[in-house]
Amino acid sequence: QSTLVIAEHNNETLTPITLNTITAAKRLGGEVSCLVAGTSCDKVAQEVSKVQGVAKVLVAQHDAYKGFLAEELTPLVVETHKKYNYTHICAGASAFGKNLIPRVAGKLDVAPVSDIIEIKSPDTFVRTMYAGNILCTLQCDEAIKIFTVRGTSFEAAPASGGSASLEKLTPPPPVGLSEWIDQELTKSDRPELTSAKVVVSGGRGLKSGENFKLLYDLADQLHAAVGASRAAVDAGFVPNDLQVGQTGKIVAPELYIAVGISGAIQHLAGMKDSKTIVAINKDPEAPIFQVADFGLVADLFQAVPEMTELLKKKHCGSMLAQDCWKVRCAPEDIIGCSWPRAGGMASPSHTIRAVAGTLPSCGSGGPSAPNLSSISGAACGQSMSGFSWNTLRFSWFLQL
Amino acid sequence: MAPLKVLVGVKRVIDFAVKVRVAPGGHVVQEQGVKHSLNPFCEIALEEAVRMRERGEAAEVIAATVGSRQSQDALRTALALGADRAVLVELPGAGPEQGAGPGAGPGQGAGPPLVAAALAKLVEREKPQLVLLGKQAIDDDCNQTGQILAAILDWSQGTFLSRLELDPGSSSVRIQREVDGGLEQLRLQLPTVLTADLRLNQPRYATLPNIMKAKKKPLEVQPLEQLLGGPVPPPRLRVLRLEEPPVRQGAQRVESVPALLERLAALGRI
């Protein structure tokens, strides 16, 4: 028994879903090999060779792999399979894997299995149907099992500690049926949507693309990725790569905050495995409330900015508690969680920026973690009587 | 370039708004008395083909499906939406609402490999230069048929299509497709298989006169065995069990933003 994982990458770095796919492959038992094909992928091959659980990395380099076209990659996968006779071939259920894997299966005359969420045994898998409303356990009677793996259903394999052998493959001749021209990728400094711990998503309720700024501001406070419902993407508020749902991305973060999203079945399919779901919607009848752990019936245009402000103050509050900052809590001076929270020492630039805000302190917490509800806007800038506890210990900060 | 002949694969599925239930026995879903519609992605694929014909880029639009006799509904809808003629490739044994026939995939009816094999035979017969499909059916959510068909035919493939332009005077199309990071542009040699994503177009509604006209358009029924020229292969994926996932507990209402944050902080989520 042996499994071939087709690595997804951009010639620079490995796409995270490949690590989840490797975990699924390991669960099958048997040796796991990884195929890295690209125009210049030595770096990625090195990266994959360090992933725990990968025994062998097969590297194929050719200009024909520009754009990772399924037409070009399929003969390579088929050739590789002929050489090594795998029992399983898989890739992540991403745009890349969904495009490639069924073509490979078609060439090998095998029925592929899409988007598996669980492996019961080497031939028995669980997948979802009907927008996640039905779980299907199925047995695959093919000699080769070919499937795609839902990334959120399997842990990422550790990216270090492995030492796979590397082997160069001779690419089969180019097919030439298709040509990659160019791409427009959305650039973002935020965490990647499918692997973020927190996701803030907006729907039609946001009313415009500009209003998504409210969500970006909130996301900055939570170190969150931003997603969207199909309605918001269709309305042109945000680009397609933000879509969460049956046909968009599947996410399962620790915290999912749905803002102005009604909760169509196809959206729920993309997020209902999130650990905690919060819904903010002014319509108390919105179906999203049926899957949410916490529902807030409110106007998002008030609730979201309020949440952002409170979180800014919370960050300030935790700094007061943990790092004993003695600074004025002007939220606009404080950027998210970039402050040192453990260890207590800030870089000089942080200190100067903090002190520039000057006294008096905000919040009314003590040395314990601040009580959120007590840190309201009114508390900010109030007397510093509650903060004598730290004044002495850290007064030197103020001398800068 | 002469106008193209376009084959559009369509599928009849349980309507997206229906709450799907597992039928007793746990192997199929409840189909009886449940509203069915044309798969939304198939509607988008069909719309694109019809627009091509309206622009003079396509000469003929043929809608085809592989399914039970019931799937004629989907084809009549396709005809009302602008297809010129339709072909039903009928599954053996899959009588009215009988559920899975031979060659069943992970859902009900024929699975993607069998549908692709049947469509490949239709392509051989009809010789279209372009096959348009939806990127996935919203029942089995497989997202495979177009890719398998392209593999069988050895054609280029354009999945998750969001824009389609014919290159004038050449034998290729320029497409835009939706990928995880954004959009990408490809040039594909004709003939090609394309699968429609959500934002390719906004499908039209069938008007009453067009629904009436559709009743007179040709709808051919061909048994699957006849088209394949041999027996229908047995299914290679066997459904062991269908079940409904555990239901999430409904929302606890919180009254204010501070109260919400307090609850999330208590759970350690923020």
UniProtKB/TrEMBL annotation, chain B:
Predominant localisation class: mitochondrion
Classification via CDD domains: ETF_beta (cd01714)
Gene Ontology process terms (BP): amino acid catabolic process; fatty acid beta-oxidation using acyl-CoA dehydrogenase
Pfam families: ETF
GO molecular function annotations of the record: electron transfer activity
Location of the protein in the cell: Mitochondrion matrix
Keywords from the UniProt entry: Electron transport, Mitochondrion, Transport
Regions crossing the membrane: none
SUPFAM superfamilies per record: Adenine nucleotide alpha hydrolases-like (SSF52402)
A Gene Ontology cellular-component term: electron transfer flavoprotein complex
Record function comment: The electron transfer flavoprotein serves as a specific electron acceptor for several dehydrogenases, including five acyl-CoA dehydrogenases, glutaryl-CoA and sarcosine dehydrogenase. It transfers the electrons to the main mitochondrial respiratory chain via ETF-ubiquinone oxidoreductase (ETF dehydrogenase).
Family stated for the protein in its record: Belongs to the ETF beta-subunit/FixA family.
Oligomer and partners: Heterodimer of an alpha and a beta subunit. Heterodimer composed of ETFA and ETFB. Identified in a complex that contains ETFA, ETFB and ETFRF1. Interacts with ACADM.
Name of the protein described by the UniProt record: Electron transfer flavoprotein subunit beta
Annotated organism of origin: Melopsittacus undulatus
Gene name tied to this protein: LOC117437719
